[in-house]
Amino acid sequence: MTMQPKPLLFEALDGISEKTISIHHDKLYTGYVAKENEISEKLYALREAGKFTDANQTYSELRALKDGETFASNGVYLHEGYFEILGGDGNPEGELADALIKKYGSMEIFQSYFSACGMAARGWTILVWDAHVSALRIINADAHNQGGVWGCIPLLVLDVYEHAYFIDFGSDRKAYIAAWWKNLDWKKIEATYQKAKQIAL
């Protein structure tokens, strides 16, 4: 499988500069795509050559590649989730907005709690649909391949690594998160929610 970087589908954001988005998408995200492809090629070569018999949980080439594989793949998928929901007017709408109000009491409470989770995370805060229990939940991930829950589908993806905001906001992550809310495209988020709700494990 060869991945290709997905292009950005919006032109401008409110409060998050073109420079930040360009570096974030064109260098960092595209780099994860390239590394995922490189790792896939190396795993294929390792299998074809039969050079995996020294597999070991402390260190082996296979272990290193498999660890890098999940880091790179999730780096691709999480960044795609992050970029794909930007470019809107930030106004919550649809069944998902209604479900969040029902679960948290109000959209303001949900956004406040989600933002606090973003302040507490080292890498990502994600609203997901948990297909095991057919419910919405918020998870934090300190790294691309740490903190995720299998069977959960990302709906609302917030990148809180410093590269996502340092150019525009310095160390003021709180201001960045406030700007992020203003740029969400809830129609796209709603479309993913509708698909996710059909999945039950």
Description:
- This protein has a three-stranded antiparallel beta sheet.
- It is globular and about 55 Å long.
- Helices cover 52% and strands 11% of the residues.
- With 201 residues, the chain is mainly alpha-helical.
- The chain contains seven helices and three strands.
- It has two domains: 18-84, Orthogonal Bundle (Helix Hairpins), CATH 1.10.287; 94-196, 3-Layer(bab) Sandwich (minor pseudopilin epsh fold), CATH 3.55.40.
- Helix 1 (18-49) runs antiparallel to helix 2, helix 3 packs across helix 7 (186-196) and helix 4 packs antiparallel against helix 6 (173-181).
Descriptors for this entry?
Helix Hairpins, 201 residues, mainly alpha, 2 domains, 3 strands
